[in-house]
Amino acid sequence: MKRWIALIASIIMQTCLGMVYAWSTFVPALEKEHGIDAGSAGMIFGLCIATFTFSMIFGGMLLRKSGPRLTGTIGGVLFLAGYLCGALSDGNAIIMFLGFGVIAGIGIGFAYVCPLTTGVLWFPDHKGLITGLAVAGFGLGGVFFAKAGLHMLNAQIPVLNILEHIGILVGVTVVCCSMFLFVPARQDAGKSDERSKINLRKVIVRPEFQALFAQMFLGTFGGLLVIGNLKPIGLSNSLSAETATRAVMLFAVGNAAGRVLWGLWYDRFGKNVIIVCMLLLAIGGAMMGTLPGIGGFYSATLITAFAFGGCFVMFAARVADVFGINRIGDIYPLIFLGYGIAGLAGPPIGGWMLHLTGVPLYPCLLVLVLAIAGGAISVFSIRRKDQKSEIISTLNNMEYVELNKENQCEQ
Hints:
The protein is mainly α. It has helices spanning about 1-15, 25-35, 40-65, 70-85, 95-120, 125-155, 160-180, 200-205, 205-235, 240-270, 275-290, 295-325, 330-335, 335-355, 360-385, 390-410.
């Protein structure tokens, strides 16, 4: 029973954290009310994603030491503090960068790692599907918050007041959900066995790690560029503000569906689905830059979001396959840094390209090129012999040597 409660709490928690994907809904209002242009707003979003991913490393360390409840609670409190800081900035760009970008981003990183790790520990035989379900809420949360945000904007509520209410709602809910993140007794994060320690410096030099890192960066760059600028892209295509906002919600739906279905397909068909996902992302980028009209814009949005969502599931499952399920909390946050770097680069680059040219074709072509590069790396890395057992054995030997050195020093 506890594992189902933990899974439900994980989904609710991730749905709240997924508010970050509704950010572009508020970009036009931030520019109108406070002079924050699309490039700067994209930079805030990118900074949030970057700090989110970097802080996951420290969140994973705290999770191993103290468990998911404390780690998730700290994440919720930090998110609340960040949004209150940004909302009370009165339009000061530096304070908004600090609040919405840095403090809230750290909060998301601490909270995000908890349900991800907890779900896989409870359901090790269905890691792709369970990971997908656990993080599907992160993509789906954008639907709710984009719709609610649009409703409040139409009611002429100041945008910073809206973000203040959202911060309070999300922060409190994340803290409450953290109380229900139970873990199996044998996998208690606060009482982990010494043998579970790992020398991460020796992991990051392995080709398998580097290939996964590159694929995460290239796969998520395009999706983040699009979602960080989706509403401005729609407006540049002569679509109405309401139509463009609906595309933000559609992106969230496609993102959530992709996280579940790609996880299910990974469990069934294995690592080859990564190649298909990258190619689909390239197709979505090409369509968004070339197909006019509402139908083409919505189709491109859905395809891009669907492929983007798969990155968060397949690479987590792949880490478990290659390095071992008990090492997800240690190694996946490092892979996830590729997403953080993409977040720091993709949205602002896309926003500035759009701001300078007024033409959405150019940022969409960038999505196409990088997705093709990600697909090429996928083909190369997957063609290599799967050395899962050899890698895990090597890591165990590394750990054994390190522990012997520590024991000798203590003696």
